[in-house]
Amino acid sequence: RPEFALELGQKAMLVTGHSSMRRAGVLDRVVGDLKNNGVDTLVFDKVVPNPRASTMDEGARMARQEGIELVIGLGGGSAMDTAKGIVLASTGTKPIWDYIGTDIKVSGPLLPLILVPTMAATGSEANGGASITKRETREKAYIFTPYMFPKVSIIDPELTLTVPKKQTATGGVDIFCHAVEGYITTQEPSMVNDGIIEAVLRTVVELLPKVLDKLDDIGMRTELSWASTIACSQLIALGGGYGPRTCHSISNFLGGYYDVAHGDCLAAILPVWMRYTLPVRAERFHALG
């Protein structure tokens, strides 16, 4: 929907990864659609897993120098989080890492942000948060601010049809963790909230094994895309019965230190986290079962 972009700016920075969007033909199609609708596009294709603070800073400098009016994040969670970091860092000149752990204030105009997820996993399109990795110190942190909330998110499940089997699987683990962690750790369960989370979990448990056997099934891909978006939006906490994501917190430490992809980290940690948590949260595991 390039008309959304034209309403927000005529010169866009498209933030994406090195190759997957090119191989799938998505990047050329998006750039072409934008051009045909009057939007000039600068492609910033330096995104890597565990999105780097240095990449965000580089993109922010480029956005300021090139007079960018709009930022578009196209890809998985790393691309979307990098786009968010560029939007925030481009408001001034200080590094993105300096915003972590502070009361965030911006000193300049805020670029509008469009997010287009190409896999069902992080749900970054539905919130104002971003993961940031500082490789020099092997640290990974999470930053949340309304300044990074997208103006528009376009969720097109057809874009997920080219996601390989392994990434589809680890993406499903991410969705599951986004939902189950707060379900288990909450101290104040809510029937409404439990119902929303259970629907997301049921979708992943029932459909993920099936879609791994039939990667081109648009119906199942669509259901997983919705589950991904809901699981990382404020809807997941509707009713108030949602606790901290402690498995994610552990994953961020390991991912930052060892530079392991987020979904792989979660897949390795989740069974251990559940066994460790079971003795003190037995009633919630019983409800989950």
TrEMBL record:
All copies of domain Alcohol dehydrogenase iron-type/glycerol dehydrogenase GldA, residue ranges: 4-157
Alphabetical list of CDD domains matching this protein: BDH (cd08187)
UniProt key word Oxidoreductase: yes
Protein name per its UniProtKB record: Uncharacterized protein
Cross-referenced Pfam families: ADH_Fe_C, Fe-ADH
Organism expressing this protein natively: marine sediment metagenome
Record-linked PROSITE patterns: ADH_IRON_1
SUPFAM superfamilies cross-referenced by the UniProt entry: Dehydroquinate synthase-like (SSF56796)
Stretches assigned to the Fe-containing alcohol dehydrogenase-like C-terminal domain: 168-287
GO CC annotations, alphabetized: cytosol
